[in-house]
TrEMBL record:
<keyword id="KW-0791">Threonine biosynthesis</keyword>
<dbReference type="GO" id="GO:0009088">
    <property type="term" value="P:threonine biosynthetic process"/>
</dbReference>
<feature type="domain" description="Aminoglycoside phosphotransferase">
    <location>
        <begin position="27"/>
        <end position="257"/>
    </location>
</feature>
<dbReference type="GO" id="GO:0005524">
    <property type="term" value="F:ATP binding"/>
</dbReference>
<keyword id="KW-0418">Kinase</keyword>
<dbReference type="InterPro" id="IPR011009">
    <property type="entry name" value="Kinase-like_dom_sf"/>
</dbReference>
<comment type="similarity">
    <text>Belongs to the pseudomonas-type ThrB family.</text>
</comment>
<keyword id="KW-0808">Transferase</keyword>
<keyword id="KW-0067">ATP-binding</keyword>
<dbReference type="InterPro" id="IPR050249">
    <property type="entry name" value="Pseudomonas-type_ThrB"/>
</dbReference>
<dbReference type="Pfam" id="PF01636">
    <property type="entry name" value="APH"/>
</dbReference>
<keyword id="KW-0028">Amino-acid biosynthesis</keyword>
<keyword id="KW-0547">Nucleotide-binding</keyword>
<dbReference type="GO" id="GO:0004413">
    <property type="term" value="F:homoserine kinase activity"/>
</dbReference>
<protein>
    <recommendedName>
        <fullName>Homoserine kinase</fullName>
        <ecNumber>2.7.1.39</ecNumber>
    </recommendedName>
</protein>
<dbReference type="InterPro" id="IPR002575">
    <property type="entry name" value="Aminoglycoside_PTrfase"/>
</dbReference>
<comment type="pathway">
    <text>Amino-acid biosynthesis; L-threonine biosynthesis; L-threonine from L-aspartate: step 4/5.</text>
</comment>
Length: 322
């Protein structure tokens, strides 16, 4: 599910009066996604996505997210283009929530990515990093080490209910980050959540990137690490070297990694695995059973975290292998 806020036809008609999108023909809630409320919107001008921004999105960040999509789309990245309102702004309000309309992208997300998909995602991620380099707005990563500490403070008292011993294990992770989290690697605009459900394909061809609502300024290699976690592990949580190699060689075909970025990958991948462990654990502990929201399993990322903690060297990700 992701329709937290329902809207009436009357509310929608009033909202659409702020746009040059012709007559409303139909709209329908979208079940997928977990953060915001999304609707397919058909008007006489075409098909669009209407998003109402919910709990994790700070309205003050919307100019960054929507401006970034506009910037990237203008640079040829296939991502949704926010539709301007009659007054030139990108953000309106419906049902008491900030809301925007963005263009509809063709394609489907792949449930079982192949190495070819992973390679295409690597190329697209590097393309995004380059295209974002001259985007004027800045946004700190609210879900980096300090943000993880805040989430952990809330989840920690009950974390051993999820898995006995988790409190001690995750406390230990924070010690590792305090000792060595890098801050001097190449940085810029990152997507920060480029999971399979945020990448559309038409066959093997990548047709678009969506969901820029965690985008921020941070290390490029952290985004690489997140994609290794999101794309290159199997359903049994085993790392797939062929996919790792395909993803990394796709990325490096557009933007080669510096040696310091390569060497930082195990720690960055641990941090990224912790980030998704913590948001999932927080949701697991706070979303009531029976709520319509789909809860994602923290265990998948606890397992990834353990994998990265014990990795012997970056060749185990497929770097430096031909
Ligand atoms: N521009 C678009 N074109 C086509 N479909 C879209 C577009 N944007 C969103 N969707 C559809 O809406 C769904 C949810 O979108 P999105 O991933 O942005 O939501 P979210 O609530 O932020 O989810 P997440 O849990 O991934 O953060 C997508 O899986 C897709 O089916
Ligand atoms: N992609 C995230 C959800 C949005 O942050 C996850 O799989 O936990």
């Amino acid at each position: 599910m992701a329709v937290y806020t329902d809207i009436s036809e009357v509310e929608l008609a009033q909202f659409l009066a702020g746009y040059d999108l012709g007559e409303m023909m139909s709209y329908k809630g979208i079940a997928e996604g977990s953060e915001n409320s999304n609707f397919y919107l058909h008007t006489s001008a075409g098909t669009y996505i209407l998003t109402l921004y919910e709990r994790r999105v700070d309205a003050g960040d919307l100019p960054f997210f929507l401006g970034l999509m506009q910037h990237l789309a203008n640079k040829g990245i296939s991502c949704p283009l926010p539709v301007e309102r009659r007054d030139g702004s990108l953000i309106g309000e419906i049902a008491g929530r900030p809301a925007a309309i963005i263009t509809f992208l063709e394609g489907v997300w792949v449930r079982r990515p192949t190495a070819a998909h992973c390679r295409a995602v690597g190329e697209a991620l590097a393309g995004l990093h380059l295209a974002g380099s001259d985007f004027a707005l800045k946004r700190d990563n609210a879900l980096s080490v300090d943000g993880w500490r805040r989430l952990w403070a809330q989840a920690r008292p009950r974390a051993d209910e999820f898995e006995p011993g988790l409190v001690a294990e995750i406390d230990g992770e924070f010690d590792a980050f305090a000792a060595g989290w890098p801050d001097d690697l190449p940085a810029g605009v990152i997507h920060a959540d480029l999971f399979p459900d945020n990448v559309f394909f038409l066959g093997d061809r990548l047709s678009g990137l969506i969901d820029f609502y965690f985008a921020c300024n941070d290390l490029f290699a952290y985004d690489v690490a997140t994609c290794l976690n999101a794309w290159c592990f199997e359903k049994d949580n085993a790392f797939n070297l062929t996919k790792g190699q395909a993803f990394l060689s796709g990325y490096e075909s557009v933007r080669p990694l510096q040696e310091a970025e390569r060497q930082a990958l195990p720690l960055l991948a641990r941090g990224s695995a912790l980030r998704f462990t913590l948001t999932r654990l927080y949701d697991w502990l706070t979303i009531p059973d029976g709520a319509l929201v789909q809860k994602r399993d923290p265990n998948e990322f606890i397992r990834r975290l353990r994998f990265h903690r014990h990795i012997g060297g970056v060749s185990e990700y497929g770097l430096g292998r031909s």
